[in-house]
Structures are given as C-alpha cells and as structure tokens.
Amino acid sequence: MKELPSSIGQLNALQNLDLSKCSELKELPSSIAQLNALQKLDLGRCSHLEELPSSIGQLNAFEELHLNGCFELKELPSSIAQLNALQKLYMRGCFELKELPSSIGQLNALQELNLMGCSNLKKLPSSIGQLNALQNLDLSECSKLKKLPSSIGQLNALQNLDLSECYDLEELPSSIGQLNALQVLHLNGCSKLKELPSSIAQLNALQKLYMRGCLSLKELPSSIGQLNALQELDLGRCYDLEELPSSIGQLNALQELHLNGCFELKELPSSIAQLNALQKLYMRGCLNLKKLPSSIGQLNALEELDLGRCSHLEELPSSIGQLNALEELHLNGCSKLKKLPSSIAQLNALQKLYMRGCLNLKELPSSIGQLNALQELDLGGCSHLEELPSSIGQLNALEELHLNGCFELKELPSSIAQLNALQKIYLQGCSNLKELPSSIAQLNAHQ
What we know:
Elements: E1 16-18, E2 40-42, E3 64-66, E4 88-90, E5 112-114, E6 136-138, E7 160-162, E8 184-186, E9 208-210, E10 232-234, E11 256-258, E12 280-282, E13 304-306, E14 328-330, E15 352-354, E16 376-378, E17 400-402, E18 424-426
Parallel strand pairs: 1-2, 2-3, 3-4, 4-5, 5-6, 6-7, 7-8, 8-9, 9-10, 10-11, 11-12, 12-13, 13-14, 14-15, 15-16, 16-17, 17-18
C-alpha cells in the first residue's frame, strides 16, 4: 500500500489501525486527525514513511503509537505534545531520528518511551524531565548519545532506565540519584563510562544494576553500599575493574553478584562475608584472582559459586566448608589449583562439583566421600590426577562421574561398586587405565 485515501477520516468508530509493514507508505493523509475514537496506531516497519502529519496532535483518544523500524522518519511533529492520552510511544530502530521535539515534555500521560537503536540520536531535550508519568525509558543502542540532561532526575515515576550499548556515553548526571522509583538500571556495554556518580547511593528502590562490559570502569563509589534494595549487581567483563569497595558488604539484599571476566580483579574484600542474602557469586575468568578471603565461609545463603578459569587461583580457604547452602561449585580451568581442602566434606548441600581442566590436581581429599548430596563430579582433563580415594564409594547420590582425559589415572578403586545411584561414567582418553575393577559389574544403575 502506497497511500491511504483521505476518506479514512470518516471511520468515526475506528479504535485500532494497523498499518505495520506497509513498506511503500510514505505519508499519512491529514484527515487521519478526524479519527476521534482512535486509540492505537501501528506504523511499525513502514520503512519509507518520512513524516507524520501535524494534524496527528488532534487525536484526543490516542493511547499507543508504534513507529518501530520507520527508518526514514527524521523527526516528530511538535504537535505530538497535544496527545494528552498517549501512554506508549515506540520508536525502536528509527535510525534517522536525530532529536525529539522539546514539546515532548507535555505528554503528561506517557508511561513508556522506547527509542532503542535510534543510533543518530545525540541528545535528549531537557523537557524530558517533565514526563511525570514515565515508567520505562529505553535508550539502549543509542550509540551517539553522549550525556543525559540533568532534568532526567525529575522523572519521579521512572522504574526502568535502559542505557545499554550507549557507546559514547561518558558520564551520568549526579541528578540520577533523585530517581526515587527506579528499580532497574541497565548500563551494559557503556564502554566509555569511567565511573558512577556517588549520588547513585540515593536510589533507594534500585533492585538491579547491570554494568556488564563497561570497559573503562576502574572502580565503584564507596557509597554503593547504601543501595539497600539492590538484589543483583552485574559487573561482568569490566576488564579494568581493579577492586571492589569494602562497603559492598553493606548490600544486605544482594542475591547475585556477577564478576565474570574482571581480569584485573586480584581479590575480594573481606567484607563480602556480610552479604547474608547472596545466593550466586560468579567470578569465571577472573584471571588475576589468586585467593579468596577466609571470610567467604560466612556466606550462609550462597548456593552457587563459579570460579571457572580463575587460572591463578592456587588454593581454596578451609572456611569454604562452612558454606552450608552451596549446591554448585565451579572450578573448571583452575589450572594452578593443586588440591581441595579436607573441609570440602562439610558441604552437605553440594550437588555439583566441576573441576574439569584442573591440570595440577593430583589427588582428592579422602573426606570427599562425605558429600552425601553430590550428584555430579566432573574431573575431566585433570591430566595429573593419579588416583581416586576409596572413599569415593560413599557418594550415595552420585549419578555422573566424568574422568575423560585423566591421563595419569591407572586404576579405579574397587569401592566404585558402591555407587548405587551412578548412571553415567566417562573414561574416554584415560590412556593409562589398564583394567576396570571386577566389582564394576555391581553398578546396577550404570547406563
């Protein structure tokens, strides 16, 4: 369809007009303003639509406007400010849009504004702070956006702010701390962002803070410990992050902490032990991490600990045995780890222990047989592992045992026959294994 007839304005009862994917449509007739009952207009992927008629501001019942993928649309008419009932405005992927009209601040009912992928949008008008009903603001992939207006702090209803992959964004205004209703802040991929303002501590409702891939971030403000509602903090792939402030231990509600790929992080502060609600701690690929603080054993709620590819980690503290809730322990690729502490036996809830590629591991502690809940044990690629302790036969819940590529393993203990729950055993590449114990025939569950 290339055009709409002007007579469309006579459809007085029309509430929903879907023109999505009309890729040849270049303009709308001004008579569209006569659609007094119109509540929703979908122009998504009208890829040749160049402008909206100024008369669109006369649509008094209008609640939703979809302009996603209108690649040729360069601007919105200032008359859009007259849409007093407009609640949702979607403009995802409007690549040619360079600015919003200052009049946009008059949209008193607007709850959702999506500008994702408006890659030529360089700034927001200060009037954006007048959008008192705005709950969701998506500016992700606005790659030329360098800063936010200080007026953004006036968005008292804002719950979700997405700035992911705003590659040119260098700083956040201190006024961001005034966003009293903000629950989720996305900063993933803001590669030029060097720091957070100390005012971030004032975000009393903030539950999730995502900063994955903030490549220039070197530190967090000490005030971050005041985020009492924060449940999830993602700092994965913040390659230049050298340390965490001791105040991080004050995050009483924190349940998940992501530090995967923080190459420069050498240690955790001992205050980490104060995170009483922490359930998941991910540190995969923290290449310079050499040890964990002994206080880590105080994390009573911790269910999952991922230390995979921490290639400089030489030992685990004996206090790790105090992690009563721990269900999964990932140590894959910890190539300098030579042994496990005997206290590992105290992990009564541990179900999965992954140690694939622990190249310097020569033996397991005999106490490992006390892991009554262990279902999966992966020792694949532990090329220096010479033997398994006979106590391994006490692992009553063990269902999977991975020994692939254990080149130095010469035999299996006869006690392996006691593993009544064992369903899968992998021995590929155990080139020095000459025979299996005759008792292996007793493995009733073995598949």
